[in-house]
Amino acid sequence: MNCLEGPLENDLVVYVALIAESQRLQVFLNTYGIQTQTPQQVEPIQIWAQQELVKIYRILGKTVVCYPIIFDLSDFYMSQDVLLLIDDIKNALQFIKQYWKMHGRPLFLVLIREDNIRGSRFNPILDMLAAFKKGMVGGVKVHVDRLQTLISGAVVEQLDFLRISEIEELPEFKSFEELEVPKHSKVKRQSSTSNAPEQEQKPDVTMTEWRNKLTHEILQKLNVRKMQFPHDPESVVRHAASLLSKLVDSLAPSITNVLVQGKQVTLGAFGHEEEVISNPLSPGVIKNIIYYKCNTHDEREAVIQQELVIHIGWIISNNPELFSGMLKIRIGWIIHAMEYELQIRGGNKPARDLYQLSPSEVKQLLLDILQPQQNGRCWLNRRQIDGSLNRTPPGFYDRVWQILERTPNGIIVAGRHLPQLLMVVSIVLERNPELEFQDKVDLDKLVKEAFHEFQKDESRLKEIEKQDDMTSFYNTPPLGKRGTCSYLTKVVMNLLLEGEVKPSNDDPCLVS
Predict the structure, then answer these.
(1) Where are the domains of the chain?
(2) What secondary structure does DSSP assign to 131-181, as a single string?
(3) Which conformational region is residue 138 in: left (phi greater than 0), alpha (psi within -120 to 50 degrees), or beta?
(4) 274, 362, 405, 413: which sits with the fewest CB atoms below 10 Å from its CB?
(5) What predicted TM-score, i.e. pTM, was given to this entire model?
């Protein structure tokens, strides 16, 4: 993002420069009406990664612009998901539109690589580039032009002070270089993976490469070849990435994004021991936790938890309300909720395997379970997902404390229960200060009694025989004449009225 001179506008227009990785890619895109420039064609302007600098600078006589970090290449497989890249581009533009407060307009560089248009990636990329050409991307107005034109009126910050003395060597920065390709060669849109016969001809490993490897490491990595790659590519990629102990970029900052929202993060497989993170940690420490806690359950778990941490870090920074009522972001339990959602969608058919989804599909599934009320789910499914997410109603913990103050022997919570029940108990006590529990409160018992009352009404009104399955009760809306709240309130009041009424000087029933 860079600043160009001009008036501050509410209806922001983002300036965009499209940079092709090579001349042959530029020629190929030109056949579709997409005008781009190559790194050589923008010289003497240099293009640097954002990790180098974040603005337009004049450094020792050089003009430098920086491209967003989302275009950096990574050896983690998420960078190969072009739909995720497109989503990141749209999110970045939305972020600029929402938070740009400087005078002038921002400049956004889009890097297009040859690998972006191979196979099935081509059409989504072409659609995005066409949207840039039309001037509207994800609800953000954009203006595409040559970089020299866009930067001509830019406010350039001088950084000549980097060279302290004449004898001191100039600092070296790596600029984005044009891809060297054979002359007159053309871009091919075939899949980036070779066909099967070619793969069989290529040796997987060499003796030199594996000479110092442990036997079990070699066997583990060769075992990946036995899996059905054409039918299950995402699962195989995750398996291989985990066996190689890959670590995604920006993992530590993503966890920090969660922590600054006043929440904790737990890493570990569902149903197994978890590690609670309440302070920022280094990438190395996080990597050790993930691979120690997750790989005993499923090798792929370690990398998909990294995916979710990245997605959650971005979502909670931009839409923190989606995590309301969640004090701990338990990654393993979130995976459990996502797998449950896939079962719901599968219906009577076998559910899709979470590990077979692409990173962009995983992100969308995460967004779906964080907003169960917007997807037409029944109350049973909403409660199942909210339970897996450890989501509680507003003010839940304060109300639990209020209950404990008036429940001398505490609360029993075991098995499956509705957090809604504690809210009902708290409201009843708040409205009836003269009442208090004489003994411990068994929430499971109260839920079963409420279910019994529910069954009596079902039997009387719908002539349905009583049964032990509580699914219909959990699938009932909370509010309404025969909502779960009405039955829970009834049993709570019955329990309170079984005890003694605490006298009060303000009690209107007392004569003196």
Answers:
(1) 14-158, 243-389, 396-498
(2) HHHHTEETTEEEEE--HHHHHTTB-PEE-GGG--STTSPPP--PBPPPPP-
(3) left
(4) 405
(5) 0.75
